[in-house]
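Researcher: We're teaching a course module on how sequence relates to structure. For the next exercise, students receive a sequence and then see the predicted structure as tokens, so they can try to spot secondary structure elements on their own. Here is the exercise chain.
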Amino acid sequence: MIVLLLSFILIAADVTWNGMRQGRAYIALILTPVQWLVDLPAEVADEVSDVVVDRGLLMKENARLKADALLLEQKGQQLASLTEENKRLRALLSGRQRIPDEVTLVELIGVNPDPFQHQVIIDQGSEDGIYLGQPVLDAGGVMGQVVEMSHYTSRVMLITDTRHAIPVELNRTGFRAIALGKGEPDELELQHVSDTTDIQVGDLLVTSGLGGRFPRGYPVAVVTEVIHDPGQTFSKVRAKPSARLDKSRHLLLVDRAEPIEPADLDASADPIITESGE
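Model: And here is the predicted structure for the students to work with:
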């Protein structure tokens, strides 16, 4: 009863007496530190919770952004690869317009590790209609010819192999010669070029068409060096292949009406494989 009576008196005083309002303000000021101390644990707990949650969200978002960045980088790399591949295929199509024969597009899938044999492996074989002696080209020029087959792959000898030779003619004058592989990835040598022959550095060598294997007029090499020795009957002529032998991935196989017989390509009978198979 005393407490209840005291409560009514305080309520009446608070409503009617202005001094009571000032007293309440002082009491609130005194109790403020107490309220702050009482509320501190809950506030700290909320802050810690927010920090932990925000850190987790940031870590997740950071991981997601990294994944997105890697994905975009991968797509950018694929786009660059597709762009270059598109350029190479366009170049192949341009080469296709210069060839009157039917051609087949193939892809290079391997390289012979033997440094003394310049050979590559393509992704088509006898099951795809590939045959021995079939000429192989790229967007730049002649690369070589098929010398070995399995059911689903074939082996191509490059024109730089020491066992390979191809009849060529000088595009500027029509002079005919034989281009021999020297075992170097970027060098051919012309055989039996007279010292009086009109041949210059920068001249383009193209297929002569003799033998009927390679299409006539397709680039083979560019002359890089002509050495005239007064004591020799023949000049030493070196040339660089027009084909990108160490870079091309997509190649063209030229179809012949009459495939070369395997006996004509027996390397054991003759170490030099010429365009006519002799």
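Model: If you want an answer key for the exercise: The CA atoms of residues 36 and 89 lie 76 Å apart. Helices lie at 2-16, 18-97.
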